[in-house]
Specification:
Elements: E1 2-11, E2 14-24, E3 29-33, H1 40-47, E4 55-60, E5 63-65, H2 70-75, E6 78-81, H3 93-98, H4 113-118, H5 120-124, H6 135-148, E7 153-157, H7 165-181, E8 185-189, H8 193-199, E9 202-207, E10 210-216, H9 222-230
Parallel strand pairs: 3-8, 3-9, 6-7, 7-8
Antiparallel strand pairs: 1-2, 1-4, 4-5, 9-10
Length: 231
């Protein structure tokens, strides 16, 4: 379980997040939704240690994290797949995957076979440079790299952005499989409404840095969610 309580965040003098509370259960997908500029990416950056939050609390299960760095967050089990993927273009696919070893104990620094079962294209392209991959292949590489850290929490920021439809479907199947395995909490930020609605178990709607709605999928229809996001 990921527990975020009353989290606030500033960029300089500007307050971006206003007391965000989010609970993401293991084995379920929590979709964070809202229009551009409401603070969704900033929330993921705060949780992952990419940007220090100003106030609030953050915990993974029973482990309380006190304003963690990105490395400390990763060691605690938080894996972040950023918008834009951030793969290393001049490094091979193999080398990109191995960068995930940094937060693992030495005896766990290996690429699980499951990674190539989830993303077969990466096995075929292990020796290719990351920058030579298509956008969809780079997205698969970024998710695979995150999974190598054996996360308790997986943060996905716009995983379908700029991706061809067949790869979007594959990424959706991968997220569904990870949810079914029940080993991690998944937090999904996504503008593709149909993709997010199809995968989510819970919804968090943000407006201007605040949470304006929380709903379980069982309690809200597609039409209601669309209307909420259109406001």
């Amino acid at each position: 379980m990921l527990n975020v309580e009353n989290l606030t965040l500033h960029y300089g003098q500007s307050q971006i997040l206003h007391g965000i509370t989010l609970n993401a259960p293991v084995g379920e997908v929590t979709a964070v939704m809202g229009t551009n500029g409401v603070g969704k990416t900033s929330l993921l950056k705060a949780i992952s240690g990419r940007h220090p939050y100003t106030d609030g609390t953050l915990a993974v299960g029973d482990q309380q994290l006190n304003h963690p760095s990105a490395f400390a967050a990763a060691r605690a089990g938080i894996a972040y797949v950023p918008q834009g993927r951030e793969i290393f273009p001049l490094m091979s696919v193999q080398e990109n995957l191995e960068t995930a070893f940094a937060c693992l104990p030495k005896d766990e620094r290996a690429i699980p076979e499951e990674i190539f079962q989830l993303f077969p294209v990466l096995l075929d392209m292990k020796a290719r440079r990351g920058g030579d991959l298509s956008g969809g292949q780079q997205q698969q590489l970024a998710i695979a790299r995150a999974l190598i850290t054996r996360p308790k929490v997986l943060l996905l920021d716009e995983p379908t952005e700029g991706i061809q439809p067949n790869v979007i479907q594959q990424i959706g199947r991968t997220i569904s499989l990870l949810r079914e395995q029940g080993n991690m909490a998944i937090v999904l930020v996504e503008q593709n409404f149909d993709f997010a609605y199809g995968l989510a178990d819970h919804f968090i709607v943000m407006t201007r840095g605040e949470v304006t709605r929380r709903a379980d999928k069982a309690d809200v229809t597609r039409e209601v969610m669309l209307a909420e996001l259109a406001l």
